[in-house]
Structure formats: C-alpha cells, structure tokens
Write a structure and sequence with these properties.
Blueprint (H helix, E strand, L loop, with lengths): L19 H46 L3 H40 L6 H20 L1 H21 L4
C-alpha cells in the first residue's frame, strides 16, 4: 500500500528502522483497543438513552392519568428530542466503528493473520442485523411519543 492507493494507510517508511514490525503491532493493539472503547461507549449511550426515555415515557403516562394534557405534550416533545439525539448517536457510532475497522483491516495486511477481516467475512450479515435493530429503538420511542400527543390532542378536543 503506497501513495497510489488513496484512502489507504501509507505504512512504508524506509527510514523508520528495525523496530518497524514491533511498533506496528503495538499501534495495531492500541487501535483495536480504541475500537473496543467506542463499542463500550456506544453501549453506555444506548443504556443512558433507553433509561432516560423509559423515565420520561413512564412519567408521561402517569401524568396522562391525572389529565395534565399540556404537561403530557411537553414531556412528549422532550422525549422526541431525546430519541432524535439517540438516533443520531447510533448512526454516528456506527460510522465511527466502520471507519475504525477499515483502518484495522488495512493494518492487518502487514500482520501474519487477518482475523478481524475473517470474522467480518464470516459474520457480516449478523453484524448488520444487530446495528439495523439498534437504530429502531429510538424510532419506536418517537412513535410512542407521537401516539401519546395525538391521543392527548384528541382528549383536549373532546373526541375521546
């Protein structure tokens, strides 16, 4: 991989010295760890947004019992905003992980085995199923909040 491959890592440094392979392996380990950190942060973000949405939606349904219509609408708007941020976070983390694995795959060319590439080739469909499912959770909450707003408006108008 040299200068002709745009978008590829240029690893050829003739002046680097004898520790090139050893240092490359250390950089590879470090970079793999950063990808694990991103995955961990992604899971924490999902837990945070799920918990926050559960609290807001639960409180919204409690307030609905008390017929506090404007509070329900306000909480639903807050919930929709939280869910929209969650959705954007899911997409951002997915793109960051994709970029990290492109780099990992390019680094693996210089290592004895391309294990991450092999794993991706074996389990690509299942991986995409998981990331596809992940983005639907905030969408489900948005739909629930919109349903709550519609029901509340119908109650205000005396239709329900």
């Amino acid at each position: 991989m040299g200068e002709d491959n745009k978008g590829s890592i240029s690893l050829i440094n003739e002046d680097y010295g004898d520790s090139f392979r050893k240092d490359l392996l250390e950089q590879y380990k470090l970079f793999v760890n950063t990808s694990l950190d991103v995955t961990s942060k992604r899971l924490e973000s999902n837990k945070f947004h799920l918990t926050l949405n559960s609290i807001v939606f639960g409180f919204s349904t409690y307030v609905a019992i008390l017929n506090q219509y404007y509070v329900i609408i306000l909480l639903s708007i807050i919930g929709i905003l939280i869910s929209a941020v969650w959705f954007k976070n899911v997409l951002a983390y997915r793109e960051l992980n994709r970029a990290k694995f492109v780099v990992i795959h390019e680094l693996e060319v210089y290592l004895p085995a391309r294990l991450f590439k092999y794993e991706e080739d074996c389990y690509l469909d299942r991986y995409h199923e998981l990331t596809s499912l992940e983005k639907y959770y905030p969408i489900i909450f948005i739909i629930l909040y919109l349903a709550l707003v519609i029901i509340t408006i119908l109650n205000i108008c005396g239709i329900l």
